[in-house]
Amino acid sequence: MTVTSTSGIRGVFNSELFPEEMAEYTRNFVRLVGGGELLLGRDTRTTGPIASRVVATAILGTGADVIDYGIISTPAIFRESRKRERSAIIVTASHNEPEWNGLKFVVDGRGINQEEFDQVLRKAPKKEAGGVTSPGRMAASEGFSYNQELVDMAGEGSGSGGNAVLDLNGGAAIGHAPDILRRLGCEVLTIGDAQGIFIRTIDPTNDPLDMLCKTMKKEEAHVGFAFDCDGDRLVLVDSEGRKRTGDYMLTLAIKEALQNMTAKDVVVSVDTTQAIDEVVREAGGQVFRSKVGEGNVTGLMAQKGVRLGGEGSSGGMIDASFNNCRDSLVAAILIVGALKRKGTKVYDQVKSYHQARETMQMARKKALDAVKKLQRENPNSEALDGLKIRTSGSSWVLIRVSNTEDGVRVSAEAPSMKEAEQLAHSYMLKVKRAGA
Question: What is the CATH number of domain 3-140?
Answer without folding.
Answer: 3.40.120.10
